[in-house]
Amino acid sequence: MKNCILLLVLLCNYLLVGQTNLIENPGFESGPVSWSYNQLHHATGWTMGCRQQFLDVDWCSPDLYDINGNQSCFVEKGLYPRDNGSLNERYAHMFNKSTDPITGESIKATIIEPLSEDYSYEVSCYVSREINVHDDDDGEYNAPLQLEFVLRNNDDCDLEKIVHTSTNIAAVFNYDSCDNAPDTPSTDWRQKLGNFNLDAGDISNNYNKLEIRIKGKATVLDPIFIDDVKLIKIPKVKACFEINNVDSAHTEQSDYGPKTVNELCLPKIEINGSCSTNEDGYHIRISEFSLSPWTIVTDYYNGWVASGTAPSTIDLNNLISVPSANNGWTSHTFDPTKLYAVSLSVGPIWDSAPFQFFRVKDCRKIEACFEIKNVDSAHTEQSDYGPKTVNELCLPKIEIDGSCSIGEDGYHIRISEFSLSPWTIVTDYYNGWVASGTAPSTIDLNNLISVPSANNGWTSHTFDPTKLYAVSLSVGPIWDSAPFQFFRVKDCREIEACFEIKNVDSVHTEESDYGPKTVNELCLPKIEIDGSCSTNEEGYHIRISEFSLSPWTIVTDYYDGWVGPGTAPSTINLNSLISIPSANNGWTSHTFDPAKLYAVSLSVGPVWDSAPFQFFRVKGCRIQTNDIEENSVLNIYPNPTIDYINFSFNKQETGTIQVYRFDSRLMYTELFNEAESLRIDMRNYKKGIYIVRVTTGTSNEVYKIIKK
């Protein structure tokens, strides 16, 4: 069963190849293996061509090389057949020793099917060339050589049609003689391929032979080797296209009668090439044209566009607008006053569709339209031209909506400070092109005026509630302008500063010049406030002061300044603000002192509404004031001290001891392991109160120490 399937596959392949390749015996394989002066005649379907190397000598012809033949040294020591398999052992050899490129050797193949104008044809062969390693006295060795593919009728050497000329054939392998051959024969074969069409006149010549010949001057030592010749018919390539986006059409007189001229609406000047068939790459010519006299005035584009099939949309604007060799390195645009012609050609044969003619016009209805957004209220004001509507807009959103504009291609905005009487522009804040495309639904006027540019005289502006403004939008490409609309700005937001003191341990009242005041007692080190209850703020400001209730006065400011943009957060650390020297605290670092009273207030922008002062004192919470507590893990002595402080544990303990200044600054830390006592040298410490934290595996206690 497997053998039957294999036989069927081989038979199908044979039939397909037979139907595809119109050359009989394309690899020179069929025919008796024999050698003679006309050895090529032993390959079925092949004969010597019309060219003969030595005129009037019939014993010299192209050679047929076979692995087992007379010329086997070339095969075995110089060049392998292309496939180097049992079914592909031969190839042809030609040379062209002549200073006249029209003489030399050539070979002819039999075409097994009549040619037709209904098809396109692809012709090809594989070629290899020996590198000449001899002296180059005449300057002719390794000269440029090409192959010509020629159609003939039997042996008629007077009637020919050259259907393809290959590119130059590069020399690819070294060979000197059979006695001095390379170690490894070459397998380098290069395909040369071309395409052609035939017309009715060509078909009447009854071409039935394909001749291959060398073109170019060469020597005997510049041989060309040929294998696997093909002539394939393919469905005929046809160029076809239509013009897209036609608005209307009319006829115009020409030297060859009336011609249809399409009228196209800018900017879409497009053609559709998808009706073209079997193409492999496409070429476009776009020209300014004259119907009388019938001539191309100038080419706007004339060149290959892309490989593959022609798409349904080809934008002619894109092709002519980019400077390239295809439009003489010049950028062009279509002009409504001129006539144009366009044609499309498709490859690989480059069949061309006839020119089609067109003119361009702008069919769009251009209209600028916009409305002011975020209007809070409106009123009328008198002007030199009667009452005018003035919109009142809430800061910060000063925006317009231009999406009602139609047909635009780019938009322009003018924003001006304005006077209604006298009716005049006081100054322009912005006057320029904004962007290409259509005007969007949101255009932020703040952004336009705040960035210095040529459109606002390189000046940054902000809207002022005391002034009147006018705005207008224009749209392109005609720059139709909508009338000015007028507005004033105001801050509609309800700004309110609000905060509360966090981490309150206890509260008491103290007398002041204005009656009793609430004083919060806060546990060091967390002295914080929460400003998140403030509303609509845009930046916040804090004042932290040492305060006296009687006389009612600020003793000194610890911090008085702007803190950050945006909304006030839920946690604002007052210790951090006063501990960093800055202009807001007189470039001085401060700490909170338990002996003093403090006031804090928060203000929020942009109006800087201020919440009232709140008062607080600080203290160290969880501080042991006795030298010895019944449940304490250690005994501290002497306290107060002037030099050393001793720590005595009730038992051996492992843990950490830390000494803090009363402003929470860490002064000393030590790890201890199975210790019964410790000593800390405090001779260099300043006088004051210090906090000691002792952490063991079973406790975490805080003590107050006084340094005298």
Automatic annotation (TrEMBL):
Signal peptide residues on this chain, from the entry's feature table: 1-22
Domain Secretion system C-terminal sorting positions: 636-706
InterPro entries in UniProt: Secre_tail (IPR026444)
Keyword vocabulary terms for this entry: Signal
Pfam family, one: Por_Secre_tail
Domain of life the protein comes from: Bacteria
Name this polypeptide is given: T9SS type A sorting domain-containing protein
